[in-house]
Amino acid sequence: xxxxxxxxxxQKLVPLAKRLVAETGISEAQAREPIATLGVDWASLVREAQxxxxxxxxxxxxxxxxxxxxx
Length: 71
Prior knowledge:
- 51% of the residues lie in helices and 0% in strands.
- It is mainly alpha-helical.
């Protein structure tokens, strides 16, 4: 296995990432993060993608403590 291979998504997940990008407006890099963690559950992926788009942050490493409610 080459050095960069671990960062490349499995080929079967590429269409899923592209669909998530097309339907939610997030970047492909952002789409790969929840797919890697949540798997292929479409409803969960769309929910997370909508949150990503709304907050404009990367999914990985984000914790609820970083966000505060707006008045």
